TrEMBL record:
Sequence similarity: Belongs to the plant acyltransferase family.
Protein name per Swiss-Prot or TrEMBL: Spermidine hydroxycinnamoyl transferase
PANTHER family: SPERMIDINE HYDROXYCINNAMOYL TRANSFERASE, TRICHOTHECENE 3-O-ACETYLTRANSFERASE
Pfam families: Transferase
Molecular function GO terms recorded: acyltransferase activity, transferring groups other than amino-acyl groups
Domain of life from the UniProt record: Eukaryota
Record InterPro entries: CAT-like_dom_sf, Plant_Fungal_Acyltransferase
Amino acid sequence: MMSISIKSNSIVIPSEPTPSGLLQLSESDQVAQWTHAPAIHIYKSNNNIPFSFEKMKNALSRALVHFYPLAGRLRWIEGGRLELDCNVMGVQISEAYADAKLDELGDFAPTGVVEDLVPKIDYTTPIEEWPLFLAQLTRFSCGGICVGTAVSHTMADGLSATNFINSWAKLARGCDLEDNEIPFLDRTVLRSSKPLMKLRFDHITYTTKSPLMIGSLDAKEEQKKETSVTLLKLTREQVEGLRNRANNETPYQENGVSTIRPYSRYEAISGHMWRCACKVRRVADHDNQPTRVRILVDIRNRLNPPLPQQYFGNAICATVTSTCLYGDLLSKPLGYSAGKLREAIETVTDEYIMSNLDFIASQKHVGGLRNSFHIRGLGTEAPFLGNPNLSLGSWMNLPVYDTDFGWGEPTYVGPGLLNMDGKSFILPSPLNDGSLIIAFRLQTQHMDSFKKFFYEDLAI
């Protein structure tokens, strides 16, 4: 059994004076989880470049000069909302040692052992005490290193968090940040209009409940069931095979008009996962079981004008597919499920985004709009999104393998935790050859069957 010992904990503040006071959060920030997003960056042994904890701390201190909001603290205000106090209380960095070799962790699936490689936050303490960024640098007996990070969901989406960590890494290599790497910190560009406009869309992501299993009055029993996590690997040929199949089979049609733009990798893979999940979750004569998928869409280039690419915050919009039936998803070709995902993604236009911001701002209390999540001992804040539904995220376009602290590129980057049935992330592969990795959590009773169908159905 691997043992991890923490050698030291340090609070790091910006190396230069930074602006203080309250910083307004956007509506997109307000509906993000108030927990942290954990990730791991794995580096194999490189004896030519010695590890220096002090160097890492100094580089982090320099990075916080540009990303100074992360050195502040959140606090609750009226309506279940949050505000940020830029009070320079700092971020936390820990030095740890593992009495094991990296190879003993296998494929780094986010199981109990891997979860110990990311920093822990005591969510029973007041939110004003939580660092908004934490890092744990764990050295292994073989010389390998894991950089485990936890970034406040309220403060950053996936791209913003990646840009911050990559900036920290670049400074640790002894380089300076270029002008196009400096974060854009003004979150008022994603505030709602004043006065609020009449809502132009239904915003079913927030206004309709996720489908339940037929015969169930709530999701309590599904939440109690044991779940497992796995990493599924797809070669470039398998990815392209899925795309070709989605595009060559009868495509999804809207009002009788076929989809013109070829389905993306995300749409084809997610459509395939949706169908496989329906196949293994189905019970006798439940072809009429309703299901839907939750998606997060990057809105930086969907706004008019577009957001600056270095926008630091939550530049994402949650959307869901229309409710589908198991029977339709399984009896119709892959193009049908991919098309339903496409339909949801394409609703996220500039007009939709602005209406979405107005909808969030119009709510007296936003607690029920936040993503569903579970923390041991604290329960679930929002409706359960698992069986019979899925939450399918993507890191495919995140530059996660640019994170070179001076030890070379990481050999693996992935989530440090997957906390809910039906939740997944499609990850880029360290091979950089077009292959992909899917981190996926599912009820244990269905996992073996899912993997069987997932790979068997690739050959159809």
